[in-house]
Amino acid sequence: MTSLLRPLSLVLGTALLAGSLAACGSAQTGTPAAGLTAAVAFYPFEFVVERVGGDLVDVENLTTPGAEPHDLELTPKQVGLLSTADLVVFQSGFQPAIDTALEQASPQRTVDVADFVEFLPAGEDDHAEEEHAGEEDEHGALDPHTWLDPTNLAAVAEHVRDALAQARPEAAAEFGSNTDALLAELDTLDKELSAGLANCSLRTFITSHAAFGYLAHRYDLEQVGIRGLEPDAEPSAARIAEVQQIATREGVTTIFFETLVSPVVAESIAHDLGLATDVLDPLEGLTDASRGSDYLEVMRANLAALQKANSCS
Ligand SMILES: [Zn+2]
Fold first, then answer.
1. Are 152 and 24 contained in the same domain?
2. Residue 24 — pLDDT band, cuts 50, 70, 90?
3. Ligand 1: distance of its center to the CA of 101 in Å?
């Protein structure tokens, strides 16, 4: 049915559809809606598809705002969306619920970020963890938090542009210029992070969940995760003692926690050592509590927090 309705809607214009599309979010400006729908796995991909698709694409985020995407579960309606959406943007290996549902679904078009992004091994920037390989079972695993390197998100934008252009060839030029604008903004952000983190008196930072490996890798910092890659795993007493030793040895000033995960462990370590706490946001979801209204703003807030904690000039 939907494949019949879409060309028809283009011929008839938007008047008939305006009512039904208004609920999807981007139709209130009166811009002609092309009727493209994209299902995205979690926030950073929502940001990219909204920017690349502009008013021509309605974006459905499969991870509810404020929810933590690692252990996503899908509703039957969301599973259905994987087959009906014009585009599904996800990263295989990160959210098992989406991987499993896609095995049964027949998506019209997918962008799987795992197909083109270069993964880092888990814990690459965390030397302390490597010494205790026996305690963690995530060695040999890959770090999924690819989007915290803006150049990776730029690659996502290019693939989304190509997929949307395939879905709606007559809008290819618009998707192209939207993408160019986004790539320029991501490039500016990358340069700001590079320059802003170049001269710091301390290069180690301690985070609640080890989500910042890509940021650390690109800007030559060293991440120490209290927890591993999974945000809700409880750290052992031995791991907490080890993190305290690193903090003291390196002269760390701040223990970072994040908006979607309980700050209790980070706060207790900071309290024991008389250190500050601050937020470093892995952008797995955006809420009213986020320090910014989009990916770019929150990444700049992360930059400011790191500069303060690590005395960068
Ligand atoms: Zn994570």
1. yes
2. very low
3. 21
Q: Assess whether pLDDT exceeds 50 at residue 88.
A: yes
- The more confidently predicted of residues 6 and 66 is 66
Q: Is residue 105 in a domain? A: yes
The answer to whether residues 122 and 216 touch, using CB atoms and an 8 Å cutoff, is no
Percent of the chain having pLDDT more than 90? 69
Gap from CA of 145 to ligand 1 centroid (Å): 6
Report the alpha-carbon distance of residue 150 to residue 124 in Å, rounded.
19
- Decide if 137 is inside a domain: no
User: Does one domain contain both 166 and 222?
Assistant: no
What's the pTM value of the predicted model, to 2 decimals?
0.84
For residue 38, report the distance from its CA to the centre of ligand 1, in Å. 23
Question: How many Å lie between the centroid of ligand 1 and the Cα of residue 291?
Answer: 18
CATH code at position 220: 3.40.50.1980
CB 200 within 8 A of CB 167: no
Buried residues in 138-152 as b, exposed as e (16+ CB within 10 A): beeebbbbbbbbbeb
Residues 6+ apart with CB under 8 A from 55: 26, 27, 29, 31, 32, 33
Q: Output the CA 169–ligand 1 centroid distance in Å.
A: 35
Q: How far is the CA of 171 from the centre of ligand 1 (A)?
A: 34
Q: Work out the pLDDT band at 34, boundaries 50, 70, 90.
A: low
Q: Please give the distance, rounded to the nearest whole angstrom, from the Cα atom of residue 215 to the centre of ligand 1.
A: 13
Residue 21 or residue 261, greater confidence: 261
Give 282 Cα–ligand 1 centroid separation in angstroms: 7
35 CA to middle of ligand 1, Å?
32
CA–chain centroid gap for 17, Å, is: 32
Residue 230 Cα to ligand 1 middle (Å) = 6
